[in-house]
Structures are given as structure tokens and as C-alpha cells.
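Could you please consider the sequence and fold appended to this message?
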Amino acid sequence: MTADLKKCTSPCIKSLRETLYGPFREWLTKITGIPLNDTIDMNGSRYTDRDVLLCHDDALEGRRIAYILYLVPPWTAADGGTLDLFKVDENRQPTVVGRSLMPSWNTLAFFEVGPVSFHQVSEILSSDKVRISINGWFHGPDIERPEASDTALSPLQTSLTLDVDVLFDWVNPNYLDLLMQVQIREKFEEDSEIELEHFLKEEKYQEVIAALQSTKTSWLSRGPANRRHYEKADSDTVPEVLLQCLQLLSSDAFFLTLSNFTGLALHELSPESDDESGADSDSAAGGASCTEKVEKVVESEKEKSVPSCKGELCRWQHGNYTMLRDIEAARATFALDAFLFCKCEGWQPEYGGFISYLAKEEDEELMTVNPTENSLALVYCDKDTLRFVKYINHGIRAMQDAPQFYSFSFQYQE
């Protein structure tokens, strides 16, 4: 995107600006009935291969009509880059694309900005064409923009009671060795994150892979599009082995194992935090170490809390993402994120799909979690840590077999 073109001295830009915000603005006022003022809000955009602008509503103070003047070469639907306008549901949340407008040379598109003006610029799919436009907004009296509710949030649940033998049936025995767990805990308390490769036993992992390829599972789209877009498995339709894996990750035995890995109070038998085990280092996703954060929790509140979790089996494909404003990932308190990745052989970072952690109200990236075959990633976060899944672009089509991967995505709270 260019800088603000309000004061650009180029003769061509100046002439266009005077036309748009002079007689054209007056014409818009007449045909729309919206009293537009003389505020100039204008810039240029340039989109190349794999660029995308995800679903949003443009709803900043004073914006009433958005416009786009296309300056593109001959363009087809196969090139992507369409302006997609979303339909909304009864909660005024975006659902599916209702109309797509393809860029065309010297064509001006405009639409009213309001509480439901959700739109996106779809991904550029051409490696040799550039989508150039002059775009901006006409301003007028601000209108009320009530906050829409998000009805798609997952509830927390307490741990399930399973036979401890199930843990030994599934998990790589190296990670159940007490000395290994001590080493893992020391590293986690220093870094507040860790990746455990080859986490499931190979035979169990292959059963999971085979079940993921089953056509029996129904996949449900998760939205709304201005917060997230991916698919989760309908637990009523998943094959038995996938249900067993979900239950394992929700079990009291796994809660205790995570306590041993992290030092967090996720089980009544969890180890006591060691105040001298490297707790003075900074965490990867929150600023202070895991042990330091636990010490900040008021003892009376800890006694009242009951460890809980929420999780789902996700399928990630071209076009999927989550956003920073996804309140599903917001922290009401300290939490442990856990991601068990499956069937991601051949994945590359340039495809997107990695998980990025940022500090709230800061641009600095704290860390990223990359999808890794049969790997369990653990990240400890505080309430000022946000995360998002990077948009998965069309490069993922180069992956072997099917261009998709899966994750068992969980969040645990003390």
C-alpha cells in the first residue's frame, strides 16, 4: 500500500483526487443520500502472487463509502484478486461470499461501509500479473456500530477419567520416562515452550493417519470469516481411533503428564514448582518464565480453580486462517497451548499455516510454531499474548498426496 495520497503532487494523482473528492463526491451524495464531507482518504494498493486481504468491514470512524479504481492488465477469474462481498447471519456475522467482483481496467467499484460491510480481496493466484488499484473512502457522519457477538466459542471441560494404561498405549515411551520428563520440564521452565517430536507411538500414529483419510468424518466450517476460517471434525462422526486420541488429550493421565512436562498445576498430583530451576529467564510467548507466572497467581484463587481444557481436531487447507482478533485464542488467564500435528510431510513455511504469537498491542513476533509431523508443541501464554494461524496460500498445493494437514488443538488452564 502506498502512503496517503492526500498531498501527492503528481499531476495525474492530483487531477484524479480533485475529480473523486469534488464532482464525483457530490454525485455520490445525491444518489446515496449520505451527506459526505470533504475529508480526503486515498491511497494505492499493489497485490502480487499469494497476496490476500482477509475479511473485514472497513468500519473506522467516519468512513461511509469505500471505493476501488482498478488499474490492472487483462484479468480472469483464474488470476484471483476478486473483491468478495459477504453475506451475514442473524448475529450480523459474515458467513459466505455472496458476490465477487473481478478487477477490470479503468473500472470503479464502490460500496457503503457499515456494521455488515464485510469484504475481502481474494488471494492472487497469478505469478506474473499485478493487481494495482487506487482506493479509499468518502467520509460522513459516523453511524452506530454495535459489537457483534461470537457464538462459536468452545466451552472448557474438566479432565476425563481414563485407565492410565491408555497413556502407555499411545505415547512414545521416551516421554514417559521420569528422567526425560525432568529434562523436558527444565527446558520448558526456561523457554516456556517446547516441541516434542515423534510424540505418539509409530503404530498409533499410522492408525491416526489412516483414520484421518477416512471419508466417514464430517468436517464443520468454523467462522465467522472476520475471525477464523477452517474446519473442525464433528466428534459424532470421527472414527474410533480419532475419538480415542481426543479423549487421551482430555484425560486426567494426560493432564498429569503435562504437569510433569511443564510444572503447571494441571493435576492434584502435579509436582511443586521449583523456584530455583531457571525461572529468571524470559518466556517465548509472554515475557516472564512459566514458574514466575505461576507464582503471581493468588494462592486462594489457585485452590478454587479446577484444571480444565478445550480442544478440537482441525483440518487445514488452502484459504484457511485465524485472526489476531479471534477471541477463541484470547487469554482470560494463563493457559497452555498444545498442538499435535499430523500428516504435514512436505509442508513449507512459505505456504502459511504456522502459528504466530505476538504480544498484545505490539508488533513484535514472540515466536512461531511450525506444523511438524507427529510433533506435540507446547506453549505457555499469559492474557497479553495473542496468536493467529497464518493464511494458507495456494503454494500448499505442492504438498504430497492431499494438500492439507491436521492438528489436535488444545488449550489447558490451571
The first strand starts at residue 41 and ends at 47.
